Amino acid sequence: MTHDGPRAAPWRRHPVLVDAVAVTLVLLLDLLVAPRATGEPAPRGGDLVLVVLALALVPLRHRWPVPALVLTVLAAGVALLLRGIETVAVLAPLAALYTVALRGDRRTTVLAWAATSGVLALTGTTGTAQDGVWQRALPVLPWTAVVAAVGDGLRNRRAYLAAVEERAVRAERTREEEARRRVAEERVRIARELHDVVAHHIAVVSVQAGVAQHLLEAQPAAASEALAHVRSSAAAVLEELGDILSVLRQPGEGGEGAASAPAPGLGRLDALVASFTAAGLEVGWSLHGQPRALAPTVDLVAYRVLEEGLTNALKHGTGTAHLSVEHRASTVVLRVVNRVPVLVGVGPGDGGSRAPGTGSGHGLLGMVERAAAVGGTVRAAPAPDGSFVVEAELPARQAAVT
């Protein structure tokens, strides 16, 4: 994580300029103020050259930290040999050591600290013969240790903040991906609902319209009844489409009374059978086992599987079907069986009958996907006796008690 962007502070955007200004101030203090305050003479000649050289190397630390440290340590070491520990040249390797600790790793920091403190301590003691020189030179060790520790600690803090920021970005990306996945799943669910609703009612409309056309002249009353079924089915499909598509509305669009109807389930089996009976399909049905309330998702899938199976029988069968629901210990088995017409030569203009599954296949595929979504299975295939069987086995998950 860096702070060199457009919003960073000016001293972070121009570190070399900041170092140049700081070095200039230190030199002015060393030449003009320090001699009056301490009584020590200002550096002259070779001493001044070494001090200027050591401090002038400080800005190099931003681009070449380790070479800058080596050069400043050498310049400061020579200055200590000539002038003693009073020289301000020792500030240069301290600044370079801080940068090495800030940008390197722990091992590099320890090695740099050991080399820097060792050279500065040895040259500081060797360069003078005054009493108590060790007591005056050895403080270089803790000073260099403090500088290295500060740089290392700040590096660890920056690494921690960078890791936190990365985790936050990753978490945000994960939330966005999860939201997109849920939107895609919802779209698939709505598409399945639309298919189930439209396929059932349009099949009824198609059959009843054909009946009305056939009976329009010979039996007007029967034709009128068939057209009434067409109108009823059309109204039903519009109502159910409105319920399904209402989930796409923004909050508040539908008004206070725009609540959707509850999702269908096996509790509406009577109405489902009645709608197909009215459409001209003779449906016999049976119930086995002890009925129990199912989880809403399983209940909806069970209803849609039976609806699709009966729609298939209405479109492709001989006009009769048998439906059965069997409640077992841990599963619910649904079965729709219908006779299919005997196939004759199927070709252009020969009027042969079509067996179930010769259409687009989206209905059967939708049943399989729905069942798989709740952990169940669907099998749809012709039987040896000439009938067509749709059989589903779904887990009998109980509805939550509220």
TrEMBL record:
The keyword Iron-sulfur does not apply. Pfam families: DUF7134, HisKA_3. GO terms for cellular component: membrane. The keyword ATP-binding applies. Residues 186-251 form the Signal transduction histidine kinase subgroup 3 dimerisation and phosphoacceptor domain. This is histidine kinase. It comes from the Bacteria. The chain crosses the membrane at residues 16-33, 45-62, 68-98, 110-127. One of its GO terms (molecular function) is protein dimerization activity. Its EC number is 2.7.13.3. InterPro entries: DUF7134, HATPase_C_sf, Sensor_HK_TwoCompSys, Sig_transdc_His_kin_sub3_dim/P. Keywords: ATP-binding, Kinase, Membrane, Nucleotide-binding, Phosphoprotein, Transferase, Transmembrane, Transmembrane helix, Two-component regulatory system. Residues 11-158 form the DUF7134 domain. It comes from uncultured Quadrisphaera sp. It catalyses: ATP + protein L-histidine = ADP + protein N-phospho-L-histidine.
